[in-house]
Amino acid sequence: MKKRCRTCSRTLDHTEFYKNASGGNFRCDCKTCYNAACTMRARARRYGLTVDEMLELVTDAQCEICGDTPDGVEIDHSHATGVMRGVLCGLCNSGIAFFRDDPVLLRAAAKYLTHSRHR
Questions:
Q1: DSSP-derived secondary structure letter, 6
Q2: How far is the C-alpha of 44 from the C-alpha of 46, rounded, in Å?
Q3: Quick check: 6 and 28 in contact, CB under 8 A?
Q4: Which of 16, 20, 61, 86 could in theory staple to 12 by disulfide, Cβ–Cβ 3.0 to 4.6 A?
Q5: Are 45 and 55 in contact (CB under 8 A)?
Q6: DSSP characters for 44-71?
Q7: 18, 27 in Cβ contact below 8 A?
Q8: Is residue 117 pLDDT above 80, yes or no?
Q9: Beta carbons of 82 and 93 less than 8 angstroms apart
Q10: Residue 118 has pLDDT above 70, yes or no
Q11: How far apart are CA 109 and CA 100, in angstroms?
């Protein structure tokens, strides 16, 4: 049995759809789209935003560090406070996390790169 997802418009096997809470029918959106929407709602709540505000932030946004949008942007937040700081690409967001959100370490890394013998 095939069903069309109302969100992505793909026609998929019915096993790609969750059943409604009542257990009888299947949801209108496929598992992939449903999970993505749930993730978006959870992230929006985490930062005190509505889903519309969250979408406005990330839609057509550029990374606030490198200006790139390789696969879209992510919400960057302080790991210490949980407060949202802005939108970054995945690489820049990971880079900050790898440097433990420490500006001193990031400046030391920049100095190292600037003065490295192997430019």
A1: T
A2: 5
A3: yes
A4: 16
A5: no
A6: HHHTT--HHHHHHHHTT---TTT---BT
A7: yes
A8: no
A9: no
A10: no
A11: 12
Residue type, 7: T
Rg (CA), the chain: 20
- DSSP 8-state symbol, 72: B
Q: How open is the CA angle 54-60-71, to the nearest 5 degrees?
A: 95
Which pLDDT value is given to residue 119? 59
Alpha-carbon gap, residue 8 to 115, rounded angstroms: 49
Cα–Cα distances (Å) from 77 to 43, 47, 81, 99, 100, in that order, read 11, 9, 8, 14, 12
Model pLDDT for residues 41-58, shown as the tens digit of each residue: 998 998 888 999 988 888
